[in-house]
Amino acid sequence: MLERLRAAADPERREKTSTYFPSRLEILGVSAPAQRAVLRPLARTLRDAPAPEVLRVARALLDTGVHEARQVAFELVGGRRDVVAGLNGKAVEVLGRGNDNWASVDSFSVCVAGPAWRDGKVGDADVLRWCGRADRWWRRTALVSTVALNMRSRGGGGDVPRTLRICHPLAGDADPMVAKGLSWALRALVSVDPTAVRGFLAAHGTRVPAVVRREVGNKLATGLKSGRKG
Question: Which of 39, 142, 150, 173 could be a cystine partner for 178, CB 3.0 to 4.6 Å?
Answer without folding.
Answer: 173
